[in-house]
Amino acid sequence: MKKNRREVREFQVFKEQLNNMREIVSNTKVANLWSHEAAVRKKLKAMKAMQGENIKGYRQLYVDYLELLDDISIRLLEDYNRKNKTDFVFDEIKRENLDDYVGSGIMTVLVTSHIPKIVADEFDRYFPDNPKDEYLEARALKRKIYLHLGETNTGKTYQAIECLKNSKNGIYLAPLRILALEIFERMNESGVKCDLLTGEEEIIIEGAKHQSATVEKLNLEQEYEIAVIDEIQMLGDSQRGAAWTRALLGLKCPEIHVCGALNAKELLQEILESCEDQYDIKEYVRNVPLQIEEKPFELKDTKQGDALIVFSKKRVLETAKMFKSKNIATSMIYGDLPPEVRKMQYHDFVEGTNKILVSTDAIGMGVNLPIRRIIFMNNKKFDGDEIRTLTSQEVKQIAGRAGRKGIYNVGYVASTGNQY
Q1: Which long-range contacts does 112-118 make (Cβ < 8 Å, 24+ apart)?
Q2: Per DSSP, what are the bridge partners of residue 356?
Q3: Which residues contact 211 (CB under 8 A, 6 or more apart)?
Q4: Alpha helices (H) in 207-312, listed in sequence order
């Protein structure tokens, strides 16, 4: 009974203080509100501990003090947003953390609960358990994927590009600038206006609805009728593979043609089935056989139509210089060769003006030339991390450039007997 009378007296004090506290708060600058905010929360805690149900007017007084706390907290939060250029919403913070809000205050809840929850939600949004769920717009589409898989020089990319030409708008994604440039030229020469987008240059053609780009330049915000992803086996590359994965998972396109090596088949099936995309597989087989030469290659054995493969621009220039010093006309190919020079190098080799070709492994990515024999001048390359031996797939990719139906009905592959 005594406890109840004490609580009633305390309640009357709180009731009498309310209007005075409202007046003080309304005339207090934001910087000085913290002590008032703490005082109001202290009274709310005390009222919550009372046997308030037996006190007339208890519920309304609790609500009045809570509204005063809200007024103070809104001003504090607005000041925080202004100083930090943020836009946190008071109602959201209070609704999700009501007990902590009364117990600890708006700013404590913001820093310890609300912001961490936002960060966690954003993390889940952008880094879901399955990477396919990063691309919700693509998942919402009904996509059909055509897998063109097989050996090098079998017409995989040609078939895909023919489909691209007949689309209203589309994109071709290449592993290398030199290949993006080749398709850009081919599309425009066939009457299909096409832009070029690479990390080194952009060529915008007026009225173009198509793009030829290096895979890293893909804009996932755009929508396409048809897309072509070339050299899809590169999704397993330790340095650049993420760009192919991003393209395959994120393209907003109802028809996608994927070209690459047959050894990527099982992984592609697993990915596409996880995405619930429909897909068809067409496997391509070479009709020009490859023949391996057992005898180690020697420089004196160089013949018309040979392509010598080295693994750096420096080695290309050194090797070409050596042959030219022997009066052997030589074309050169490497990744950052200027377009005009590249065209001349191609032309002179195709026409037979230049007897041989010296190239980096860029030749393995879609470059189609009349090559009689591929000659590996080394079996190691620097891959950005280390000098390592070529993989079997890399050897197949490059060696497959030998042979051209109607010109060389057998392709030959050779290598030096030493590390030239």
Answers
A1: 114/88
A2: 330
A3: 170, 171, 172, 194, 195, 196, 197
A4: 241-250, 265-275
pTM for the whole structure: 0.66
CB 248 within 8 A of CB 232: yes
Taken in order 365, 369, 372, 376, is the CA torsion positive or negative?
Answer: negative
Which own/partner contact pairs does 185-194 have at CB distance under 8 Å and 24+ positions apart?
Answer: 186/161, 187/161, 187/212, 190/165, 192/165
Residues 6+ apart with CB under 8 A from 189: none
In sequence order, the 6+-apart residues with CB closer than 8 A to the CB of 181 are: 196, 198, 212, 339, 342
367 with 404: CB under 8 angstroms? no
User: In the numeric block, which tokens belong to residue 196?
Assistant: 């070029």
Q: Find out whether 273 and 387 touch, Cβ atoms under 8 Å.
A: no
Kindly state the tokens that stand for 168: 């209203």
Residues across the chain: 420
- Are 213 and 180 in contact by the 8 Å Cβ rule? The answer is yes
Segment 391-411 mean pLDDT: 87
- Tens-place pLDDT, residues 352-381: 999 999 999 888 776 778 899 999 998 888
The two structure tokens encoding residue 382: 């620097």
Amino acid identity for residue 325 in this structure: S
Model confidence pLDDT, tens digit, residues 209-245: 999 999 999 999 999 999 999 999 999 887 889 999 9
Q: Which amino acid is at 251?
A: L
Q: What are phi and psi of 135, to 5 degrees?
A: -120, 75
State residue 420's pLDDT score.
44
Around Cβ 402, how many Cβ atoms within 10 Å? 26
**Which string of DSSP letters, residue by residue, matches 289-358?**
-EEE--SPB-GGG--TTEEEE-SSHHHHHHHHHHHHHTT--EEEE-TT--HHHHHHHHHHHHTTSSSEEE
Amino acid in position 241: G
Q: Tokens for 416?
A: 């030096």
Tokens representing 223? 């929508």
Element (H, E) at 122: helix 115-126
* Separation of alpha carbons 127 and 145, rounded Å: 25
Alpha helices in 27-57 (DSSP H): 34-49
